[in-house]
User: What shape does this take?
Amino acid sequence: MKSGSRLERILKAGQFALTGELGPPRGADADAVRGKARHLSGMVDAVNITDNQTAVVRMSSLGACLIAMQAGLEPVYQMVCRDRNRIAMQSDILGAAALGVRNILCLSGDHQCFGDHPDCKKVFDLDSMQLINMVKTMRDEARFQGGAEITVAPKMFIGAAANPFAEPHAFRVTRLAKKIAAGADFIQTQCVYNMERFCAWLAQARDMGLTEKVYILAGVTPLKSLGMARYMQKNVPGMDVPDDLINRLQGVDKKDQAKEGIAICCEQIQQLREMKGLAGIHLMAIEWEHRVPEIVEKAGLLPRPELQAEQV
Amino acid sequence: MIKATIKPLEEIRALVAPFRRVLTVGCGGCVSLCLAGGMKEARELNIKLRALQDPGSEAVFDDITVERQCEQQFLAALDSRVEKYDALISLACGAGVQFLAERFPHKPVFPGVNTQFVGVTLDIGWYEERCKTCGDCVLGLTAGICPVTMCSKSLFNGPCGGPQDGHCEVDPNTPCAWIAIYERLQQQGRLDSIADVMPARQWQGQTPGRILHPRYRDRYVHEDGNDT
Assistant: This one.
């Protein structure tokens, strides 16, 4: 075991994993985190706690991770390269590990121009690939990026993101291979709407033997409304929302669109489950955490696997 | 070359407002080529500053332009002229402003331009950034396209998940550097050069930089290792 996290154990046992997502609040509001955590508890195997997503300032991922843990969830600590240099990152990783965080997702981060402090100085001392490699070195060699020894190594299950839908399509699997070479143990993908393209990407990864080396969790985000679907299609970089999904939502009454969105989401999960080489689902119900129980149940993902208390 | 833009007139005016005799020093180097700080711009600035003067003001704005403000030998030409002025405006890049201020430490020196970047001239009056002077060039691996400068996130292992129609997610007018790198390497049959993870960088430039050219090193460094 690399970390002994619940997520790692479930994946290692060959169980189809399910991760969720929890966006920390725009304030020092622990109850907001607890409230969201209640909806996710028992529904997912681990929960990603986002790190100032879309470059909008929120409660720190680490702070929210701790609250989520106290509420009984296993967090996946998201860390972006935009805001911290390697000193701050390593320090936070040690702090997180000491507090019991066992999963980390290494991301580049949305550019600061999308957020509420567009005039800030970007950091990007490392990129996501280099961050993955740094965490691996810390864990496996008990060494800091600068070479010095770490007294107690942080045991983290290392995650990375992949976007099968972004250009250049031919390079996307190579980039996945690079993330694996850098040290990624699991991958969570961009939201899958274009099933055909995702299928092609996964097949390519399978052919290269990559699905044997890394656990791939397909990203899924329920569409709450036609407006959201259109927004995702037009305004969210790297998102591929096919027209037939837009048409399908357009075909139902506005008041029924959320229901239809959930139906679509459940169908997507069913299709994804059939795909060879896929290790699980990453369900990102953005500001819709309270609908997760319904989605997970309808998609037939309950009950979640029980694990022995400690198998490290 | 270094590209600069003239500061807003109001800002310059406010900086020199307390002084009666002001010398605007143009630079004949990079900043003159990008039409920001050469002789013509020095004269133009003074005309504008005079036009903004209050009636009855006795302020004097003179100008002089030296070959380059980043070389001692050209600044020497100013030694005899500077004494009669209360303040100087330098239209050189940030390096030139500081070198001027260093040579005349008893005179207030104010910048007249904002130094923008190391870049190229695409056409008359059209300049674009190409180099962040990071001190450890990777262009040999990246098909002659700089990831530090041209990628909005300065990624060494791009492209990120965000490009749309070949453009950066940050700005639809900015091409994605990493797609360009990928395409050019593919064209040259050299995709191997980005197949491996580029390791974390040893960033330089964290303290003021210094180059002692090997051929001249002995002139400046004594045997005991101390500088001149």
Summary: Residues 262 and 295 of chain A are 6 Å apart (CA to CA). The domain at 6-222+278-298 of chain A is CATH 3.20.20.220 (TIM Barrel). Chain A is about 40% helix and 15% strand.
